[in-house]
Amino acid sequence: MHFTHLACTLCGQKHDASVPQNVSACCGKPLFAHYDLPAAARTLTRESLRTRGKSLWRYREVLPVRSDADIVTLGEGWTPLLPAPRLGAKHGLTQLFIKDEAQNPTASFKARGMTTAVSMAKQFGLKKLAVPSAGNAAGALAAYAARAGMEAHIFMPRDTPKANIIECEQMGAHVTLINGLITDCGAEVAKRKAAEGWFDVSTLKEPYRAEGKKTLGYELAEQLNWTLPDVILYPTGGGTGLIGMWKAFDEMEKLRLIAPGTKRPKMFTVQATGCQPIVRAFDAGEKFAAEHLGAQTRASGLRVPKAIGDFIMLDALRSSGGGAIAVTDEEMIACTKEVGAAEGVFVAPEGAACYAALKRLLAAGTVTPDQTVVLFNTSTGLKYLECYGG
């Protein structure tokens, strides 16, 4: 469509978008997709969106796939933005929402990134894809690779929730369990991919998962009648969703979908106390985040001790006036029931972490009851039954 080039997120050097790319050749950092936004704005308008299909591909002009024939889709995106009145009433909040990503295919937000990554892999004629995953990305790759007729080679920590492992196996993926963390799984993919002929679709180590994830930002604006919330709380492992949304806000302003000078939401990243590299780096004023050694948390999606997009996240948090907060596993588990009993949404521990963080921020006066607040639930609690004694 209007996709023009890739550029390094650290130094800005352009990269060829006509061939498969992983990280930038210049700095070894993530690549971002760039578009001819003035051209896209001619057809991507508030009015045109009113008649489009309810999936993330409604934002076709700012997604990178050249031909519709290469789109690999299971109907992902356009998940509900649920008002949470009873939960909000506990804290005097009248505008509290849950963006429920559990209603995606494969029951997690990872479907957004994998639809675009696998579609681009199809465009490039790739046949074998590999990923290290804490669970939900693995399930999404297994599904979209199967849909595209590709091989999926998946590496997960041995203690990944059983539901994720079964999910991948039942969709025909090649699953390898590793004694270690997601970083150890990533090292195994890196070691073997050349010899095996795999293309690595790790978080932010290919450019297009972030493009699917950025549609979270477009949807939020559209669902809030082209305004942006005051506060976003987002559970962060690799951080692609937070990074993608921050990119989307800039694109939307250039597309004139939101008004010029629209105030950006305060972005808060939420991590586990047992794995909080972004929180530590934010608090220390660092540009990059050191690896969190000995990472431990029952929220498998938050057990990412080192994120390649750390500097992009930290810049977004600081630019937005937001911050980073860590909560305990015990808080997450308790908040899962509190959210479920109040609003009927069985959130994943990562989603519950956002509510736990909100309570802290309200108590500190950092978030106030008059603000519009969005909590992200990234998956369903059904995938984490081990956390609840199941």
Descriptive report:
Helix content is 37%, strand content 16%. It has 390 residues and is an alpha/beta fold. It has a domain at 81-107 and 209-388: Rossmann fold (3-Layer(aba) Sandwich), CATH 3.40.50. The strands form 3 sheets. A 6-stranded mixed sheet has the order 4-5-13-10-11-12, with helices on both faces. Helix 5 (136-148) packs parallel to helix 6 (162-170) and helix 13 (329-343) packs across helix 14. It starts with a strand and ends in a 13-residue tail after the last strand.
In terms of topology, how is this protein built?
Elements: E1 3-8, E2 14-15, E3 31-35, H1 37-40, H2 46-49, E4 81-83, H3 85-89, E5 96-100, H4 110-123, E6 128-132, H5 136-148, E7 151-157, H6 162-170, E8 174-178, H7 182-196, E9 199-200, H8 209-213, H9 215-223, E10 231-235, H10 240-254, E11 266-272, H11 277-284, H12 310-320, E12 323-327, H13 329-343, H14 349-364, E13 373-377
Parallel strand pairs: 5-13, 6-7, 6-9, 7-8, 10-11, 10-13, 11-12
Antiparallel strand pairs: 1-2, 1-3, 4-5
Helix pairs in contact: 4-5, 5-6, 9-10, 13-14
